[in-house]
Design brief:
The structure holds two protein chains of two kinds.
Chain A (H helix, E strand, L loop, with lengths): L4 H15 L4 H17 L4 H17 L8 H17 L14 E6 L6 H14 L5 E5 L7 H12 L2 E2 L8 H15 L3 E5 L8 H14 L3 E7 L6 H11 L4 E5 L8 H10 L3 E5 L7 E3 L2 H8 L3
Parallel strand pairs in A: 1-4, 1-5, 2-3, 2-4, 5-6, 6-7
Antiparallel strand pairs in A: 7-8
Helix pairs in contact in A: 1-2, 1-4, 2-3, 3-4, 4-11, 5-6, 7-8, 9-10
Chain B lengths: L2 E3 L2 H13 L4 H15 L3 E3 H16 L15 E6 L6 H14 L4 E6 L6 H12 L2 E3 L7 H14 L4 E6 L7 H17 L6 E7 L5 H13 L3 E5 L9 H9 L3 E5 L7 E3 L2 H9 L3 H8 L1
Parallel strand pairs in B: 3-6, 3-7, 4-5, 4-6, 7-8, 8-9
Antiparallel strand pairs in B: 1-2, 9-10
Classes of the chains: A alpha/beta, B alpha/beta.
The complex binds guanosine-5'-triphosphate (2 copies), potassium ion (K) and magnesium ion (MG) (2 copies).
Chain lengths: ~300, ~290
């Protein structure tokens, strides 16, 4: 089993203190453990490197070397830096625009876009009392549009009627028009999953964005993602005006390092967290909790 | 040709490449250490370095590269497909069905995901695409009841193969995992040797948690083999190396796209080469 960083660092640093003063080399040894802990939690290597440098500077500034409990002190610095990087400010979905406000959901195959679309629709309908329309632009995955339709029935939110043979961009345009005519406040656009190396699909996604001018573009990503999280976040962020990230499957026992990776490379806030398959299992993102998870605390 | 010394710095670069492919620190260190054993401090050029690193990894993967074999004496041979949410179970069933149908086998698919919206419709479309019979009950029905029906029908039809889809579930959810145990129990009421294959579908973009998935699904459902999907992206799926080293479970196939033909045999050497990448020196320089 994984020892928490706390234990590992106390092991290294606190026994050294008993021997006398710590050296810079001791701090470096401790930072190697920090690096390893982060990598084991699936934080991407490039992000780990920058992070460890920040922690090193802060540790030097805080004079860890002279501290009585240097292990605890380093853990605190690591923890605080994690929380800060993950974003301590809660950022809800922003609907401050002329209706109908479009929200576009994007991400890799199977990341949880369709489920999250329905969860957000439910939340906006119930809490914000908005009139919401959902549209599936997924013409690829078998029964994808059917899936959103069923979810719409479950949460009592309208879905755009399915018309066979239309392209995703055409469906998006139809959704916007239906929303204007129908007096909807919000239109949620659920898109097909795509690999970012698939240029045709990435270009199609950009076209959908152009056609609908969404106020929020949310990257839906799996909290269990490994090192690829940086590539994926970067690729989607380069092509679209991403406004935030939704992390799904936080109900799993993954360590959640992808959260740090994606936040660090895009600078975009993690707006919401999926914590189950049920449609009310959507929460605000708590940086504190993810920081503890990453550290195995 | 650039040569470099296989010193600590080079070894660190190699370890970084493996970590970035999701092998995990422990496995990455173990592999680079093995590499250093007889070559430490020797001059080595990039191509050679790439070759030896790939061959270390191939050595771990070769024993697990085994195709999915169907026992012709079983009618049907029962394949239970399990895994976390969205990993690619239903799609993989569709692709496998196509392959076995092309071999002239009769295939029955059981729509055992009675939970997720339109999961049944999704499998039915794969049934149409592949000319397989689909057994389904309405959404919300008991999954083990469906499993019973599907096996019954496959036996009556004297089918070669029954593939049973299941709802995605995270391995830390005890109640959902218990449901898998129940499916197995119910299958055994009709055929005590079933399921003959329990396939765990892993997503290549998943990081270190995949190891845990293998462990728990194996404990609960007796996994006999793996398929890794979504290798058509940039994720390398390196956790499979750590899994192979620890569990030695066969890897039957890989998914490389959403289409019906996007299933390939698992080739140890090719997989290892993809992990190592095109140029070690550049990757190392980049990373430094
Ligand atoms: N445990 C858990 N499962 C989730 C969560 N969000 C989604 N899922 C499940 O993940 C699976 C995939 O979800 P979908 O919403 O279909 O994913 P998608 O991104 O729309 O998939 P594609 O359209 O095929 O790309 C389903 O089984 C969902 O029930 C979550 O927060 N926790
Ligand atoms: N790019 C790519 N996508 C894949 C691959 N295999 C499956 N997918 C896609 O991943 C998404 C999820 O696949 P499913 O087969 O529905 O996954 P599942 O495990 O059955 O999902 P749940 O039943 O919701 O748990 C779909 O959009 C598939 O088209 C693959 O090898 N490559
Ligand atoms: K990977
Ligand atoms: Mg979807
Ligand atoms: Mg499925």
């Amino acid at each position: 089993m994984f020892d928490s960083l706390q234990e590992r660092l106390s092991g290294i640093l606190d026994t050294l203190t008993r021997r006398g003063a710590l050296t810079e080399a001791d701090v470096s040894a401790a930072l190697r453990e920090v690096r390893r802990a982060l990598l084991e939690a699936d934080v991407a290597l490039d992000v780990v490197r920058d992070f460890v440098e920040t922690v090193r500077e802060r540790a030097v500034g805080a004079n860890v070397v002279k501290s009585v409990t240097p292990g605890q002190m380093v853990v605190k610095i690591v923890h605080d830096t994690l929380v800060e990087t993950l974003g301590s400010d809660a950022r809800p979905i922003d609907l401050n625009a002329a209706p109908p406000v479009a929200i576009m959901m994007v991400g890799l195959q199977g990341s949880g876009k369709t489920t999250t679309t329905a969860k957000i629709a439910k939340r906006l309908t119930e809490r914000g009392r908005s009139k919401v329309l959902m549209a599936s632009l997924d013409t690829r995955r078998p029964a994808a549009q059917e899936q959103l339709k069923i979810l719409g029935e479950q949460v009592s939110v309208d879905t755009l009627p399915i018309v066979a043979g239309q392209s995703p961009v055409q469906i998006a345009q139809r959704a916007m028009q239906a929303a204007r005519l129908g007096g909807y406040d919000v239109v949620l656009l659920d898109t097909a999953g795509r690999q970012f190396v698939d240029e045709a699909l990435m270009a199609e996604m950009v076209e959908i964005e152009k056609a609908t001018d969404p106020h929020e573009v949310l990257l839906v990503a799996d909290a269990l993602t490994g090192q690829d999280a940086v590539n994926l976040a970067r690729a989607f962020d380069e092509r679209l005006s991403l406004t935030g990230i939704v992390l799904t499957r936080l109900d799993g026992d993954g360590r959640g390092g992808a959260a740090l990776s994606m936040r660090a490379v895009t600078g975009k806030p993690i707006k919401l967290a999926g914590v189950g398959e049920k449609l009310d299992e959507l929460e605000e993102f708590h940086p504190e909790r993810i920081a503890n998870r990453i550290l195995g605390m | 040709i650039r040569k470099r010394r296989l010193d600590d710095e080079t070894l660190q670069d190699l370890e970084d490449i493996l970590v970035q492919a999701d092998l995990g620190v422990e496995t990455a260190v173990r592999i680079t250490e093995r590499l250093a054993r007889d070559r430490y401090d020797k001059e080595i050029d990039d191509a050679e370095l790439r070759e030896v690193l790939a061959s270390e990894i191939t050595g771990v993967l070769e024993p697990v590269a085994r195709p999915l074999e169907i026992d012709g004496a079983r009618r049907p041979h029962v394949v239970l497909v399990v895994g976390v949410n969205g990993s690619g179970k239903t799609t993989t069933i569709g692709k496998l069905a196509a392959k076995f149908r092309a071999d002239g086998k009769s295939v029955v698919l059981g729509a055992g995901d009675t939970f997720r919206a339109a999961a049944i419709e999704q499998l039915k479309i794969w049934g149409e695409r592949t000319g397989s019979t689909v057994v389904a009950r309405p959404q919300g029905s008991d999954a083990s009841g469906l499993a019973f029906d599907a096996l019954k029908l496959a036996r009556e039809q004297n089918a070669d193969l029954l593939m049973l889809d299941t709802a995605g579930r995270l391995q830390n959810k005890a109640n959902l995992m218990a449901e898998l145990e129940k499916i197995v129990r119910v299958l055994r009421k009709q055929d005590e040797t079933a399921p003959h294959t329990v396939l765990l579908v892993l997503d290549a973009t998943t990081g270190q948690n995949a190891m845990n998935q293998v462990e728990i699904f194996t404990q609960v459902a007796g996994v006999t083999g793996l398929v890794m999907t979504k290798l058509d992206g940039t994720a390398r799926g390196g956790i499979l190396v750590a899994i192979a080293a620890r569990h030695g479970l066969p890897v039957h196939a890989i998914g490389v796209g959403e289409g019906i033909d996007d299933l390939q045999p698992f080739e140890a050497k090719e997989f290892a080469r993809a992990i190592v990448g095109e140029t070690i020196t550049e990757a190392g320089d980049d990373a430094a």
